[in-house]
UniProtKB/TrEMBL annotation:
Entry-linked CDD domains: sorbitol_DH
UniProt-listed GO biological process terms: sorbitol catabolic process
PROSITE patterns named in the record: ADH_ZINC
Enoyl reductase (ER) domain residues: 12-345
Entries under Gene3D superfamilies matching the protein: Medium-chain alcohol dehydrogenases, catalytic domain (3.90.180.10), NAD(P)-binding Rossmann-like Domain (3.40.50.720)
Cofactor section: Zn(2+)
PANTHER family attached to this UniProt entry: SORBITOL DEHYDROGENASE (PTHR43161)
Family recorded in the similarity comment: Belongs to the zinc-containing alcohol dehydrogenase family.
Sorted UniProt keywords: Metal-binding, NAD, Oxidoreductase, Zinc
GO molecular function: L-iditol 2-dehydrogenase (NAD+) activity; zinc ion binding
Protein name from the UniProt record: Sorbitol dehydrogenase
Length: 347
């Protein structure tokens, strides 16, 4: 086996280095993966620029990256469902598998969760990584390695739509047309939403969202909350959305969701902003507008793979940029520009 295991290692704010690390050995229930494609997430860039996300602080060198596909290079002695040469997508979180959350099917809430590129756990922007085999999923022949990397953010959208109980014919408002917002738009459409409206501050993002199937787009820049609410309701033929999926974390956007959602509807908070936000909570309470959070995703990878392989959901319209592992710093800077939906690094 080659000894090259070039990896992107974050030491501190603005200190991202490419260096060799030892190739790991898989345990009995693990596989060694030759990484092919890693998508760059906003969280990767945030660690690079700020050194922390909430309580997760980079205190020692950490390999970045968690949206990953690759090829099985070696299998542990107890692995039965995978073999060398299998193309896979890697679900990046490893729960304890023993606690109440894990045993009741909500392993994303496991207090012992170890998640790629969340300090102090190393990520996957390397030539080789090991991972538990039961969190590696075979890719059908009709899915590319880029599709495999996109399954991770797509799973966020699937979990968001599940938490919002999006159903056939529902009117859905997505707030924020960044990568996660656009994936929520596509997922809501795939599961049968009747109309999906999306808002943002950027006309370019909204134009792409319209091209990808949004029934209406609204640029909220410089507009009052009342004006935005009126525009949303007009776009829905005088009706309010039953589900709002908030992907910005911005206070005005959260307030728009609360005041605009139909009584008895659901708001899903996907975007993360300030720790404390002032919102009209009484309006939510008295109109029985449920506010629900999401934390990553749970049991979504098989669904994502099925949606993509069956053609029910098509990601080919997402704008992309491509870099080599040796160009990691340039790829991170390109992600900051936000001129494409997803930047990929090919390892």
């Amino acid at each position: 086996m080659a000894e090259d295991n070039l990896s992107a290692v974050l030491y501190a704010v603005d200190d991202l280095r490419l260096e060799q690390v030892p190739i790991p050995k898989p345990g009995p229930k693990q596989v060694l993966v030759r990484v092919h494609t890693v998508g760059i997430c906003g969280s990767d860039v945030h660690y690079w620029t700020h050194g922390a996300i909430g309580p997760f602080v980079v205190k020692e060198p950490m390999i970045v990256g968690h949206e990953t596909s690759g090829v099985v290079s070696e299998v542990g002695s107890e692995v039965k469902h995978l073999k060398v040469g299998d193309r896979i997508a890697m679900e990046p979180g490893l729960p304890c598998k023993l606690c109440e959350h894990c045993k009741t099917g909500r392993y994303n809430l496991c207090p012992e969760m170890r998640f790629f590129a969340t300090p102090p756990v190393h990520g996957t922007l390397s030539r080789y990584v090991v991972h538990d085999a039961d969190f590696c999923f075979k890719l059908p022949d009709n899915l590319s390695f880029e599709d495999g990397a996109l399954i991770e953010p797509l799973s966020v959208a699937i979990h968001s739509c599940r938490r919002g109980n999006v159903q056939m014919g529902h009117r859905v408002l997505v707030l924020g047309a960044g990568p996660i917002g656009v994936l929520n738009l596509l997922t809501a459409k795939a599961v049968g939403a009747g109309k999906v409206i999306i808002t943002d501050l950027d006309d370019g993002r909204l134009a792409l969202a319209k091209k990808l199937g949004a029934d209406a787009t609204i640029n909220v820049r410089g507009k009052s909350l009342d004006a935005v609410k009126e525009e949303i309701i007009n776009a829905l033929d005088g009706q309010q959305p039953q589900v709002c999926i908030e992907c910005t974390g911005a206070q005005p956007s959260i307030e728009t969701a609360i005041t605009t959602t139909k009584s008895g509807g659901i708001i899903v908070l996907v975007g993360l902003g300030a720790d404390r936000v002032e919102i009209p909570i009484i309006e939510s309470a008295t109109r029985e507008v449920d506010i629900r959070g999401i934390f990553r995703y749970v049991n979504c990878y098989p669904t994502a793979i099925e949606l993509l392989s069956s053609g029910k959901l098509d990601l080919s319209g997402l704008t992309r940029a491509h870099y080599k592992l040796e160009e990691t710093l340039e790829a991170f800077k390109r992600t900051q520009k936000a001129d494409v939906i997803k930047v990929f690094i090919h390892c």
